[in-house]
Write a structure and sequence with these properties.
This protein has 182 residues and is an alpha+beta fold. Helix content is 31%, strand content 15%. It contains five helices and four strands. It is globular and about 65 Å long. The model has no long low-confidence stretch (mean pLDDT 93).
């Protein structure tokens, strides 16, 4: 897990839908109070990426000329939309279900990395704009957490990453204690 890196420039090869489905076993252990599974994934390939680009442009109020189109969704051949799908439950608040969806997305990123794929989770100001929500077919209560861009990793770049001496985090800045009693 410590070797995982976000790969902003992935290659054109992608896992199949069946391979993605098999990687979901790695998502099963996500912290999920009451086992609600409050998340779902949407696989965007081909023209789905063009539709996403058009929705992003519409949300931003951009008009493209002629054959121009938004290139952002074309940074990878496969985008996996991570959607939080909270369910009404008296013991599980919505924020906790959003956290579960984010955890599922991150575990999927780890599984993709372990399987040899490059991935980068991207979001943005317009992820939940009405036009973008509509193109994803989101229900009113759902939240688009972003897209995991997936593709192959150049072997030379992967080797370079494996030789990296990137230091780990200094834990002191993240670990503390609750305040003492007055």
């Amino acid at each position: 897990m410590a070797s995982r890196r976000s790969i902003s420039k992935v290659g054109p090869q992608t896992p199949t839908d069946e391979q993605i489905a098999s990687l979901l076993a790695a998502v099963t252990p996500v912290a999920d109070h009451k086992s609600l599974r409050p998340w779902r994934l949407l696989l965007l390939r081909g023209d789905d990426r063009l539709r996403l680009g058009q929705a992003l442009d519409a949300a931003a109020g951009l008009k493209r000329e002629g054959d121009e189109f938004n290139l952002k969704p074309f940074r990878a051949e496969l985008l996996i939309a991570v959607v939080a799908s909270p369910q009404a439950h008296p013991d599980v608040p919505e924020w906790e279900q959003h956290a579960t969806a984010a955890g599922a997305g991150h575990l999927l990123e780890l599984a993709l990395w372990q399987a040899g794929w490059g991935a980068m989770w991207r979001s943005g100001l317009y992820a939940n704009a009405p036009e973008v929500r509509a193109v994803h077919g989101l229900a009113e209560a759902e939240l688009l957490m972003g897209w995991i861009y997936v593709g192959d990793v150049d072997p030379a770049f992967r080797a370079k990453l494996s030789e990296s001496k990137r230091p780990g985090l200094e834990p002191g800045q993240f670990i503390g204690r609750i305040p003492a009693r007055d």
